[in-house]
């Protein structure tokens, strides 16, 4: 009976699997084949040895790491509050988190350009409050890119942590406090360790999405902040160098798979902290 049910489920999933193989697996394999055109690894050597491309990859990793760290610091308190909020607070909080998904990333990015420009809302407010005399450069630099990316990716950090916190039995914390542990110790010894799988999943998701981000850094960076996705697009659009763009894409894919492998190896375990 179980075998028949499994075969039925596999049969139902077969069209989706075929679609995924056709729309994802084949293009990826074609991309990898293009990167070693003629059986040569010269494009990978260029990506690995040329200082320009190495620095762009390093900057992309650095920006993705900073965005992930900021999102984690901002998202954990929100997820913790959501896991303990009442029905009204939970509904309002989830609505606020889901609302950005109903707005185009392009629209949100242009909105930040209006807010962060030299004569934008933020600079006018700071001048009106007497905090600055000259406009602060919040746009077309790393700061603007970080602000825009954190705004877009924050929900992707909140939801995995929130899901992990929902699985933490609240009686554990109450039992610890009943035995004399202060609230902060109950949190650091029980709640935080048990929520680490959600933290790991959220960090991996945000980091990978940040690494391949294009629209937000392209607009808010103004061409002064270059990430690897922008470099790949440039190789195709300006230089028509498809094999080298494919090699850069393969490098980005390898980094992404490596991150997921590390998370799967080390991030899927949680335990109560020992005294």
Automatic annotation (TrEMBL):
It comes from the Bacteria. The chain crosses the membrane at residues 62-82, 94-117, 137-159, 199-222, 242-263. Residues 57-263 form the ABC transmembrane type-1 domain. It is a multi-pass membrane protein. PROSITE patterns: ABC_TM1 (PS50928). Its main location: membrane. SUPFAM superfamilies: MetI-like (SSF161098). InterPro entries: MetI-like, MetI-like_sf. Gene3D superfamilies: MetI-like. Keywords: Cell membrane, Membrane, Transmembrane, Transmembrane helix, Transport. Belongs to the binding-protein-dependent transport system permease family. CysTW subfamily. This is ABC transporter permease. It comes from Paeniroseomonas aquatica.
